[in-house]
Amino acid sequence: MSGSGQLPPDPGLSPATGWTRAHWEATADRLLLAVRPYASPGNALVSLPGRASRSGEWSDGLEGFARTFLLAAFRLAGAGGHDPHGLASWYADGLATGTDPASARRWPRLDEIDQAKVEAASIVIALHETRPWIWDRLDDAVRERVLDWLAPFAGAWVPDNNWVWFRAVAAAFSRSEGGAWDQADIGHAIGRTEDWYQGDGWYTDGGTRNFDHYGGWAMHLYPLWYCRIAGDRAEPGLAERYRDRLRRYLSDAAYLVGGDGAPLFQGRSLTYRFAVLAPFWAGALFDATPLAPGLTRRIASGMLRYFLDSGCLRGDGTLSIGWHGEFQPIRQLYSGPGSPYWASKGFAGLLLPPDHPVWQAREEPLPVERGDFTRVAKAPGWVISGTTADGIVRVANHGTDHASGDQAEADDPFYCRWSYSTRTGPDLDGDVDSGVSLIDADGLVSHRRPLQPLGAEGRVGVSRHRAHWPAADGRDATAGPLLTTASVVRGGWEVRLVRVAPDATGPWTLRIGGWVLPAAEPPGGQEDQDRWHAQRSAAVRSPDGLTSRIIALHGAMTAGVYRPTGAHAFGQYAAVPYLRSTAPARPGDTYAAVVSFSVAPEDTATPEATVAPEGIGELPRLILDSTEDGRLAVTITWPDGEQDHLSLPV
Question: Model pTM?
């Protein structure tokens, strides 16, 4: 089994994954031993192969040390100091060399390269967790040098986002050891965290609509670790406040894990992969989880296995930039060869003792394994749906955009798509998949962000935005009409509605993109089928049965299939079914489409597929009525008679 050596599975304890704590320990050992050949003499810099980040190779070497040190700390402390691979001495040597100002292989100071501030947080957490085996055994001179290296953090500038907690965590450690720190840094982190809290356990990371995995692996993790390091000196009531919020967040986050163990593919820094597990482990560590112990381990072991079995490790055992295997388009400017090792946070559960219920309880099924569901996460504006038959979790996005506030800002495909899932990601080179766009006479495609969330309730999410064309290629930015968009989700199906504002001038054609389908070989396609009572439709299908389909429900549209030329994070090839209006969109026009993304038999393509997969039924019926105040009342009647009602504003 990938990453865990020859250890046998334990189907009694772990019927879904077979994994036990021993598998986790073996995987941690493999990851830690694999990086050693890339360490500089003295072990201070771990310079893995790959393109340098914008901070440069020197900073990247520190990153490789700090992030693997975090993993080593979890492994060493969780084993009570049992250290067959000499982790304590190996990383102690790195600390001594890295903080030696006279060493040619020293670390960059925090006032030399800003990225060092990020890595300082991993180092101090690792030092705190391994005090008896590393910090307490360092020479006095080395301890003093570590505190000197951290000293520039006190009062230093940090970006207005999760970085405020790197400074606060370092302050807590320095304070505990008599080093330099500033109470204002701690107060600032606490205050900004309140500004970013959006309710129901959800944080933005700095901006207004910046919802992504950072909410879990940063905004929930570091405040609680600050409290852990600060101990009795932590502000009264702070730890319980953060525990309450984490409990609420995890009640949603558990529904964002696919049946194959995959997390939602959305947001930046996805190369951190199983760092997504950090808040789940923190919930168990800090008594801040609503999840049963067996469910926590099912989520954790399932996700780690998902990535290992998908090829996240290179032949030398190191983590690559990518998702499954190497995938460079996922790389951000700040990503270096050592960046993927923030995945070390996903091993925090090793700090739980072997007899903890998380390690001893029998695995319990994931939410998506228990039955189909629809759930709303109001803060990010997500309507979440999961289907047990294929294990896919999908999100209809009506509130997350990572916008700066610039009304002419270009879309970010990691945030601005209409939908995201655990089985596919956006086409990073295109703008068709899960998009809603107006196309002008020159063929230029409008952008979506910033979004204005209008609400999410039950199976319905609504938002609107001003279609616009950012400045590019010598053209000035231009603005178009407001587009009101809505999703009505049921199982693997979604009705997507678009209403063009009454004051639109045009002419533009409207395009609605379906789900992008990735595959190891070019997906097969169908276009313009008559089987849907003369409705226009398109579908693409991979050899394993995964199918993406779009069907025109209201408004004159024609169907097509777009095939991206670039590789996809989930496969070498991809295809996207889409609809395009047959004439320019007029003021007040409303368009509707039915989309699906599921694994189903060839002849199963109806909204009632999860109920009666053997039959072909009717499409949902749509009734549109204008109200006196100009709103549009929409009634959707599903084939089994169930109805959804929504209202779209002017």
Answer: 0.95
